[in-house]
Give the backbone structure.
Amino acid sequence: MLDFHNHLMPAVDDGAVDIDESRAGLQTLQAHGVTGIITTPHLRASLTLRPRDLAGFLGVLDEAWSSLTMLAAAEFPDLRVERGVELMLDVPHPNLDDPRLRLAGTSYVLAEFPSMTVPPHSTLAIRNVRQSGWTPIIAHPERYSNMPANYDLVRDWRDAGAYIQVNSGSLLGYYGPAARRLAWALIEAGYADYLSSDYHSRGKCAVAGCSQRMKNRGGVALHRALTTINPGRAAQGRTVPSGNRVRARFEAVLAANDSLALRVR
């Protein structure tokens, strides 16, 4: 599995507070079966419009990244570790030219909206990012407090060119029953492209439990697509190919079909 949403860099956001917590986070994700990580500290999009401030903050991230990579090389040699950010879209026209802002330096950028609330004109912000040449992956839409239960807005985001990442913890109810219901609905409707941990280096990690829950529901191949195949393609800058919409209830024929590495409409 490749996990591209987590907060393992030491002392840069609300994730790992120091290198010891970074170590614990790496140990935990590896124990849950993760073999590749793209770590994504929080960064406000408005910072990208202030070059001096951005350079200062990226310098802080560079130091933390150096510490993390030295730790990984020394103690986790089999774990692939790369970097990106979780970009908070607090402005509609961010400048994402610096490859450190994108997942493993590809055209993909992990993005979220401020205050766990979808703002007005969110689809326009996604279109702006796409028109600038980058591909947004919207993080954990199931967690937004004002997300419509019919997830029409997620459909609009996908039509505007975004991909969708669901948190593994949402499927287990870590963020409450509403987020759990919407997370499963998005997956069963075929509107989720990726599953990631959003692990903050401490507390309970949902990766293994989510894997088992999906397997119990007959979604072995679908889980592999969402956690391994599709993230692996993103880390290489490759698209998730279009295909037939995945139907609800994970029929047995789907569970045996590795062609579920699809972007489903």
Notes: Residues 186 and 192 are 6 Å apart (CA to CA). The longest helix spans residues 51-75. The first strand starts at residue 2 and ends at 3.
